[in-house]
Amino acid sequence: MIHRLKEVRKELGFNQTDFAKHLGITQTAYSMIENGNRPLADKYVKVICSAFNVNENWFITGEGEMFLSSPYEKEFIDIFSRLAPETQQYLLLMAKELLKTQERLLESKDKQQAGGNGGGDLE
């Protein structure tokens, strides 16, 4: 589990000092945990998994995916839930249009890479 602790920290882009602050411990205490000199208390496992959307089963056993979902999904859902219903509808419409645009761009890129027309037409 110790190597997964370090893997999560690095994946999230934290140094030991900043990650330790999220856990409410000192960098020295965190370093001792990450180096295997101190056990990682269950409460910190819960904090890490809850705060960063880490899959607890993966964190403990190594099985499954590191994150339960995209690290951005939780933030997006929090923001979405605070919007008025009319604004939620508008955001959903915009997200659908963005997805269509992304799909067209990816199709165009695939055609170009496959030796297609090379012109980048989006139809």
UniProtKB/TrEMBL annotation:
InterPro entries: Cro/C1-type_HTH, Lambda_DNA-bd_dom_sf. Residues 5-59 form the HTH cro/C1-type domain. SMART domains: HTH_XRE (SM00530). One of its GO terms (molecular function) is DNA binding. It comes from the Bacteria. Pfam families: HTH_19. This is XRE family transcriptional regulator.
